[in-house]
């Protein structure tokens, strides 16, 4: 696939404030108080809140941090790319900087890529921490405020364990990807409380749930496998919270208001699919970012089964919210073009949480 120069310029952008430790983002939303303290007025949210109170886990006590992690061995077990294997998937490294790479360079790339992915999980979890605190402030229902407060604790715990894993088990970490930060900024900037739900609880958390599941299934590290299983048990509950809250609100929106949410969901989907290109990894391993993106972006992204699978959680939730078929099926047509509409009847996260329900069942099954 040939990438237009202007799009390549966008994709090649990397973090330009990686040395900064604090970032300020404008929050344009009003803080909402409610004087209606009737607990359980929204029974489904109240049920989720009661479950959340009993599903707290302790990252210090419930994970075995004494386990040694060998990054290179994990990379080898996952599989190291080589020229022949890349050619099989349509990647031609002839006359590129990759042509002179040997096993050591490809091994290092896999080690760095894993650290980059875990770093983006960490930054995304802090984004969820901030967004959920915003939901506590902005949502008008007491049952939603109660539940969102439990999620703030969940997200703090997720930030804690990913940060500790990167600090104690990995040799490197990465700053937030520029495109992830831009998406988080847009979600926080928006003054409408439901957009925080849609952007974070449904779109980003939905994709993260699929990505966590993929990494959990592939990793040979028992510590990371259990960490991800704990996090996933929380994340399914978080996405279910977003769907439960938005179903009621979206039922009262006009077609024009729903179209704004459809456009937002589609834009977020395209950005999450296309823009997370390991830009910071290419810089660190000494490869020009534009060259790397051009080399590895082959074929139509709509045909990539891995990218499609990341939307297995998002599409059924958009259907449950009524976003797929509103306005003449506008979002349905967009997802058909992306070749992800086949997931519309997959288990939505509200139902999936019932299967994952409770940290015990989600985390205490034998680890393979």
In terms of DSSP E residues, the strand content is under 5%
Rg (CA only): 21 Å
Largest sheet descriptor: none
The DSSP helix count reads 17
Main structural class: mainly alpha
- The CATH class: Mainly Alpha
Low-confidence stretches: 358-368
Shape verdict? globular
Number of domains: 1
Gap from first CA to last CA: 38 Å
Order of helices and strands: HHHHHHHHHHHHHHHHH
CATH superfamily: Ferritin, core subunit, four-helix bundle
At CATH's second level, what is the architecture?
Answer: Up-down Bundle
Give the helix proportion (percent range). Answer: 55-70%
Q: Return the CATH topology.
A: Ferritin
The oligomeric state of the chains shown is single chain
* Mean pLDDT rating: 89
DSSP E strands, number: 0
Question: How would you describe this structure to a colleague?
Answer:
- The protein is mostly helical and 368 residues long.
- The chain has a single domain (76-363), classed as Ferritin, core subunit, four-helix bundle (Ferritin, Up-down Bundle).
- 64% of the residues lie in helices and 0% in strands.
- The protein has helices at residues 5-11, 43-53, 71-78, 83-88, 103-138, 142-169, 178-189, 193-218, 222-250, 255-274, 279-284, 289-296, 305-309, 314-320, 326-337, 349-356, 359-363.
């Amino acid at each position: 696939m040939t990438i237009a120069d202007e799009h390549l310029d966008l994709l090649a952008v990397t973090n330009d404030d990686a040395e900064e430790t604090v970032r300020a983002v404008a929050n344009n939303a009003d803080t909402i108080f409610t004087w209606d303290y009737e607990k359980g007025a929204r029974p489904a949210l109240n049920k989720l809140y009661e479950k959340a109170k009993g599903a707290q886990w302790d990252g210090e006590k419930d994970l075995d941090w004494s386990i040694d992690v060998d990054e290179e061995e994990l990379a080898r077990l996952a599989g190291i790319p080589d020229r022949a294997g890349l050619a099989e998937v349509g990647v031609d490294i002839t006359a590129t900087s990759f042509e002179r790479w040997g096993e050591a360079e490809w091994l290092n790339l896999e080690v760095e890529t894993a650290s980059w992915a875990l770093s983006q999980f960490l930054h995304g979890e802090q984004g969820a921490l901030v967004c959920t605190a915003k939901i506590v402030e902005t949502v008008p229902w007491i049952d939603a405020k109660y539940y969102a407060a439990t999620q703030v604790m969940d997200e703090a715990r997720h930030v804690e364990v990913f940060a500790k894993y990167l600090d104690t088990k990995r040799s490197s970490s990465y700053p937030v990807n520029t495109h992830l930060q831009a998406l988080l900024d847009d979600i926080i900037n928006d003054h409408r409380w439901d957009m925080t739900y849609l952007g974070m609880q449904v779109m980003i958390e939905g994709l993260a749930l699929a990505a966590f599941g993929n990494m959990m299934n592939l990793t040979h590290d028992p510590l990371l496998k259990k960490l991800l299983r704990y996090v996933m048990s929380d994340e399914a509950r978080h996405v279910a919270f977003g769907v439960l809250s938005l179903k009621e609100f979206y039922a009262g929106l006009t077609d024009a208001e729903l179209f704004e949410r459809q456009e937002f969901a589609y834009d977020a989907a395209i950005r999450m699919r296309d823009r997370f290109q390991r830009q910071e990894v290419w810089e660190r391993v000494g490869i020009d970012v534009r060259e790397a993106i051009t080399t590895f972006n082959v074929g139509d992204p709509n045909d990539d089964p891995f990218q499609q699978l990341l939307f297995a959680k998002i599409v059924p939730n958009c259907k449950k919210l009524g976003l797929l078929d509103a306005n003449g099926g506008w979002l349905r047509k967009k997802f058909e073009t992306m070749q992800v509409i086949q997931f519309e009847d997959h288990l939505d996260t509200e139902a999936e949480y019932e299967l994952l329900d409770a940290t015990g069942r989600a985390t205490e099954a034998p680890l393979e």
